[in-house]
Amino acid sequence: MSDEKLSSDKDELKVESDEQHQGKEIEINEKNLPSKAAAIHEIIRVEGEKELERDSFALLWSAVAAGLSMGASLIAKGIFHAKLPDTAASFLLENIGYTFGFIIVIMARQQLFTENTVTPVLPIMQKPSRQNFILLFRLWGLVLLGNLVGTGIAAYSFIHMPVFDDATRAAFVSIGQSVMDNSSGEMFANGIFSGWIIATMVWMMPSAGGAKIWVIFLMTYLVALCDLTHIVVGSVEIFYLVFNGSLPWQQFIYPFAIPTLAGNIIGGTFIFALISHAQIRSDMTHQPKKNHRVEGSSPPPDK
After folding, report:
1. Backbone φ, ψ for residue 273 (5° rounding)
2. Mind listing the pLDDT tens digit for each residue in 108-166?
3. What is d(CA 70, CA 43) in angstroms, rounded to the nearest whole number?
4. Is the CB of residue 125 less than 8 Å from the CB of residue 274?
5. How far apart are CA 164 and CA 13, in angstroms?
């Protein structure tokens, strides 16, 4: 009986795709695909299917770990903010700290919500079935919950553990307050660009090879330089204000979390992922048949 239940649970977590119905695997051989972009698309789609089918507790714990790790961004940026002199160059150096959490989370393969606005979305765009949407919303819900729990624990520990000096703690407050200086509309608009940049980073990773850490650094450094809003990094910063009494709970939810989350999803999913999928769909639709003559090939011999 237990074996039947286990088999049923696995079927429920199975992503529906055209390849599954045909008993095939997703084609990721660039030689058999119309473009390099199509090969990248299929690599990410394979990864997305794996993420959608992962166990719920594995997703949740990985997301909690990512939230904790993202606290490194606030630590590094806060220390730089406290220790560097007040000059124009200090702004450039301080924002290097913002990249630390992303590097840890992505290189450790932990679950970050904004990465999941692209990777698991591609299988849904390929096969927008009811089951696939259920799997996507399950993934998004678990990862977002885990990220917020992790960032909340990180922020709470920064306040109550005797690790940081007064100058660094003041820097943490200043960083969080600078985020809250944005209106809800600015949070939303900044979140769109942030989501788009992180989605672009995810798209670049399969081609990055040994330079992955530099891709992560450059793209997340751009997010920091532009003072864009990000639902996970921003949660560490705003939770710090909430837990030290500088900000009421309601203001974490709005004007920060809801507009930022919506912007990140729109930037990552409805702009980047849709456009990227559209170009691949066009490539596949207009791909010449394999039995067509390749231009420049030798003509058939005269009879």
Report:
1. -65, -40
2. 999 999 999 999 999 998 888 999 999 999 999 999 999 999 999 999 999 999 999 99
3. 26
4. yes
5. 44
**Rounded (to 5) percent helix, strand, coil in the chain:** 75, 0, 25
1 lies in some domain: no
Predicted structure pTM score: 0.86
Burial label for 105, CB within 10 Å (0-12, 13-18, 19+), is buried
Residues in the chain: 303
Q: Do the domain assignments include residue 121?
A: yes
CB atoms within 10 A of CB 160: 10
Q: Give the span between the Cα atoms of 33 and 206, in whole angstroms.
A: 16
Inside any domain, residue 292 = no
Instruction: Record the tokens describing residue 15, joined without a space.
Output: 């992503």
Residue 4 forms part of a structural domain: no
State whether the Cα torsion 201-202-208-211 is positive or negative: positive
Q: In the chain, how many domains are there?
A: 1
What residue type is 99 in one-letter code? Answer: T
CATH number for position 195: 1.20.1080.10
The C-alpha atoms of residue 175 and residue 164 are separated, in whole angstroms, by 15
Contacts for 245 with CB less than 8 Å, ≥ 6 apart: none
